[in-house]
């Protein structure tokens, strides 16, 4: 185990446990790094000498490249562990893996895993800052933050917005993080899905649930479409892609029911013809490409806050309802 | 060499009295009275002297997983927890589904600090396809059959096993007990905790309470059809408790047990993502905990069991989904039952000693009232001692207790097994 270093032992494990101020601090800083991204040489020395390790137990080219680009623009060194290229495999002791990476001197570990809670467990075993890049069906906080940033950029703020999240909410870490982030920033959230694609319980969730997309569309300020995995059919959750697209896919006819200034988002990669048609993806109201571009700036802000500033960002003890009394690291 | 327990308050199925207990070198109680003396005198002042405990549900891991537990270490933990008899589950490797493994477990048990009562699988290899050789196993003294770890899915086979078991009553000398781990796997598969508000929030796939309840319902119906003697293991949901209550009221030959963790912990504990809280059946809700306690109080549930399930540290350092289910229980069961069941001490002792002894078919030597001539299987409890739970400090080879760091009240001071003091002043003698 590495000895304590002058790094704040702080993590970004989920939106759960964060405050509106925490979110806004990150979004404000993202503006600064978006400016860096527009320079001829989009690189600053903020994290020179720091090492960011990407630990991807589950494939995700987009998220991994986004974090790596962000780290390099901050002049950090990067290490990449993916399940295809190393000994990472199901069943291996997670603790061993994270201790090995710690011993290589990683200051931050960006972790993606197919099972919920992995980032939380890792955070207990390492001095490095742990950033959750998606854990099973649980959370994907940087996706939610970049979505909030994208909406704020388009509208100035989320207060009072009505945002519909459509599709496979049951299995979606993006939905869980976004429900929390959108409502923290003052938006109202509708979950729109067939009952089999909703969580078994939404008790305590600050949301309205409906099964009728058509009826919801005219009242939405933003429509957030989730990716549908084909295995949901073999699991017996929906009869067919055809029926899903017919009831929950956003085609041009449906999109015309949205207000003229409503926004369309999708975390990618899209299944064109399923969640939405290519025509809708190219609609002037679609922010899908902005989401991707903003992802790099947002992740720069997160890395900088965790590794660069030494300021407290996110409390660790996000799970319990008690206030976090733990002091920042030395 | 005689042993005398001095100054304690005896509590057994016959009531309470302040008397000394003298144990002869034949392993039987020689005398009870006041001012008794013997070669070894054990102080029991301020303590409760009870018939030793009987755990209907223990995984001792031997043969097959001796890195997690052995019969020797499990029995030592049992003795430290006040147990004099442990009912060993058959999900060993190889599975205890034939006379050879039963005899191996019994032989290993005979050198341990508790009486080890072997059970056998209902089906060959616990695969749920072919009936195990129940008649032969009964001839080797097996009185409880279970595929614990999974429920027996096929209702037709379950019916046949029930019918067959009723033909073995005379051979065993009492009805064969079929013990079911109620879980319809088609509903539970792919779920790793209780399905509900917490699983939805945590993103951990859940298994619904109905996975347990449907099998409880099915088996009650089949008991009505066949007259088999059924025991429901680790009841964990409100509806399960309620159905068993109904079955008993209808006069059906059913009994049930609940584990300490199912009346002391809820699914909220899984929020730590620590697989030490992963167990099957899963930790349920506050409502279920209250129902289990009510079942213990009104006699619907006959016994407090532990489902003691040791796992090596490395096995619990995996993600929640892939870590094996199960938790330690033998050394914490008494304290937790005294503190959290809502029952008074004599009721707890009944649920931990004489009532499970009757279900296990060992009531001739465990849970027996403390009187001259009775086998000396006894534990002495200090109800006021406080102690702090530490998995590392336990006798088990594993340390997966969900109560780590908790300070509990009430602890076993001495345990006497067949007249031999195996635990003295809270220390195991071997």
Give a description of the structure:
The complex is a heterodimer of chains A (330) and B (430). With 330 residues, chain A is of the alpha/beta class. Chain A folds into 2 domains: 20-140 and 292-308, 3-Layer(aba) Sandwich (Rossmann fold), CATH 3.40.50.1370; 141-290, 3-Layer(aba) Sandwich (Rossmann fold). In chain A, 36% of the residues lie in helices and 14% in strands. Chain A contains 12 helices and 9 strands. Chain A has a 5-stranded parallel β-sheet, covered by helices on one side. In chain A, strands 2-1-3-4 form a 4-stranded parallel β-sheet. In chain A, β5, α6 (173-184) and β6 form a beta-alpha-beta unit. In chain A, α1 crosses α5 (141-155), α1 (20-37) crosses α12 (288-308) and α2 crosses α12. The two termini of chain A are 17 Å apart. By secondary structure, chain B is of the alpha/beta class. Chain B folds into 2 domains: 3-48 and 373-428, Urease, subunit C, domain 1 (Roll), CATH 2.30.40; 51-360, TIM Barrel. Chain B has 13 helices and 21 strands. In chain B, the strands form 5 sheets. A 7-stranded mixed β-sheet of chain B has the order 3-2-7-18-19-20-21, covered by helices on one side. In chain B, α4 crosses α8. Chain B is globular, with a radius of gyration of 20 Å. Chain B starts with a strand and ends with a strand. The A-B interface holds A 16, 90-91, 93-96, 113, 115-118, 120-121, 135-139, 173, 176, 199-205, 319-320 and B 195-197, 199-206, 208, 271-274, 314, 317-322.
